[in-house]
């Protein structure tokens, strides 16, 4: 597989605006899950909501005005707009038509659709500014980003539930390798909404306490919201030492909401990613697990990891810090993996009291600093048995290569 | 424009009813499918039923087992009827929501049920580009076929959105599916060869987007292939910017 380079990335999560806020939360191992406030259900639920005031959409693009689009806009412009500036540079280097946008989302602007339907319930008419095409359609946030960034390359939305943005990253690589694009803005954006809060509750998958993935006493997921953006480029540059070197995708062919009990599909995705990266399991220095905190998901994934990897390979779950950001989870956790590579640490697993004794692998409980990480794997799995596994690598300076 | 092509090994269509097929100048093909189990048939949407039916016909037409194919399902709105119902439930505070309706509202409902029904462990993509949904799915297929896959099944489907979601729309519920490949088949003639989708100038949409959905755009290619036309087709006629594809004589 052709390696593509990650020349910039940005995250807006419950931890705050920017990847630095996420890095701080990971290093301090602090959970940002709080009692649900944006959506107030009549049951107890903890969520990872973005509490900062989101930027306003400029008047020219007001048709796209959703919480999703504002989360995406915050990701463009936080940390001195470093992500926007990197995309501007790519646009100048390759030309606007050679830069695409592929964004994963599980619910797009459905939050605004819900508000509009609420208005209809109360008054008999939908809200004046409701715009299905620019707010609710799967491509809406991708199209908003394309316009904000003045790009004219291919632009689409991917929606495969919780694997959406992992798949968007893989699709971006293919756009570059197949010669259609030279750079692609990839990632995922999902805001809180009634549909997922009440939907996951109706499936009895939500936790009444902040989620504790991989714990013996885990009780389910805590939802979160986020925007995670990565700029993939054909060429590297002086300041970039991060790359996507492999991806694997698969289907469980098992059940709509329950994962394959032995993790057959997730195992296949991880194996394919390793094969495409030309790496062996022992080359992987850290695995950022999907690990949502439901009994079945964690069991299935750990079964697959145990079948493939040496017991010592460090792995951890970071959803206790950010919440499960659904269609944005692949992008947020790709960024967690990139932060780990860039800052040479292994994130811990917030909320662990006792690792489920059924899990034989090395679950990292507290952040480990001063590590020597070269290759990191990030997994995401969604409804429909939809699996994706990504491998990111850091080019090391000669003095950094262990035993080299 | 890229001179490389994709072979179309098979295609299929499905319509919600006969009137729709007639109005789109197509031979009627119903929503029957042998692949969707009866217990799922009762609780899946028109969108999913049409997608299954068109996909099953395309595989049969290509002479390929469905389980052998990675899939790309594309639709601008996906499960819009289920979403409409759930948003009405939320508006009237009718909780708890139906758990089945909730998981059947995700965009990859059709592709998820498909991979389960045909027992395929190949990757399943579910995407959308509003009126460009078909054109961009063809581009996604192109990128898969020129990097990691040998054949793919592309399914483009759209049901009629509710008036609350899209006021005054007349989208005609239908689905179209194609089996695409970069490889020549020794035992099976291709229906035709298509170029990579490409952009070209056009001043404004040629069709009204309240009348025309991306699934009807996909029908234009389906009809041209069945008539063995060698022609250029506007595959996003209701979108602001045009995408074209050319059907070539051979590879």
Protein described:
The complex is a heterodimer of chains A (404) and B (251). In chain A, 34% of the residues lie in helices and 19% in strands. In chain A, helix 9 links the parallel strand 10 and strand 11. By secondary structure, chain A is of the alpha/beta class. In chain A, the strands form two sheets. In chain A, strands 1, 2, 5, 6, 7, 8, 9, 10, 11, 12, 13 and 14 form a twelve-stranded mixed beta sheet that branches. A two-stranded antiparallel ribbon of chain A has the order 3-4. Chain A starts with a strand and ends in a 10-residue tail after the last strand. In chain B, strands 1, 2, 3, 4, 5, 6, 7, 8 and 9 form a nine-stranded mixed beta sheet that branches. In chain B, strand 8 and strand 9 form a beta hairpin. In chain B, helix 3 crosses helix 6. The chains are: A alpha/beta (404), B alpha+beta (251). At the A-B interface, helix 3, helix 4, strand 6, helix 6 and helix 7 of A face helix 4, helix 5, helix 6, strand 3 and helix 7 of B. Strand 6 of chain A pairs antiparallel with strand 3 of chain B.
Give the tally of β-strands of chain B: 9
CATH architecture name of chain A? 3-Layer(aba) Sandwich
Q: What share of residues are in beta strands of chain A?
A: 15-25%
Amino- and carboxy-terminal Cα gap of chain A: 25 Å
Helix content of chain B: 25-40%
What CATH calls the topology of chain A is Peroxisomal Thiolase, Chain A, domain 1
Instruction: Characterize the biggest β-sheet of chain A.
Output: 12 strands, mixed
What fraction of the residues of chain B are assigned to beta strands by DSSP?
15-25%
CATH class of chain A: Alpha Beta
Largest sheet of chain B: 9 strands, mixed
